[in-house]
Amino acid sequence: MPVSEAGARSGKRPLWMSVGALLLGAAALWASSRLVWFAESADGGVRGTVLRTQTGAERSGALIPLAVLALAGVAGMVATGGWPRRLLGGVLVAAGVAACWVALSGLRFGGHPEGAPVAEMYAAHGLAVAGGALIVVGGLLGLRKAGRMPRLGAKYSAPGAKRAERDPGTELWDALSDGEDPTTRS
C-alpha cells in the first residue's frame, strides 16, 4: 500500500468515527423521545385514579430538534473542512451537552406512582444521555481533527504547492514566440 493511500485512510477514520457517533446519537435521541419519560397519578373522575404518562417528545420539546441538528451535523462534517468544521464541531458539542442536560434535569429517583413504567423511564433518560454523549464525541472529533479529515470534493481542488521558478533562458524563447526580438530589449 502506498504511503499516500495509508495517509488518506488514516484521515478518513476520524471523519467516519465522527459521522457514526453523530448518527448513533441522533438515533438515540429520537428513540428516547418515543419512550415514557414521566408518569403521574391523576384523578380520573368516575374512573378513579388514572396513570398519565408523557413521552420524551411531550415532556421536552428539545429532543427531536437536537436529533435533527445532529443529522445536519453529519452533512456538515462531510461537506466542510478547516475552520467551518471546527465551528460546527463546537455547535455539536454544545448540542450534545444540552441533550444530556435535558435528560438529567427531569430525572427523579423514587416517588413514582403505582404501576408506572419505571424501567422504561430510566431507560429513556439513559438513552438520551448516551445520545448526547455520542453527539459530544462526534463534535469533539470534528473540533480536534478538522484539519486531518478529508473534505467533500477535496480531490478535485488544485494543490496548494508553490509554483516552480521560471528558467531565465526560456524568456528569450517566449519573446520569439510572441513575435518580439529579444536582442533589442533593454
Automatic annotation (TrEMBL):
Residues 177-186 have a biased composition (Acidic residues). It comes from the Bacteria. Keywords: Membrane, Transmembrane, Transmembrane helix. InterPro entries: Trp_biosyn_TM_oprn/chp (IPR019051). Residues 157-186 are annotated as: Disordered. The keyword Membrane applies. The chain crosses the membrane at residues 62-80, 87-110, 122-143. The keyword Oxidoreductase does not apply. This is Putative membrane protein (TIGR02234 family). It comes from Prauserella shujinwangii.
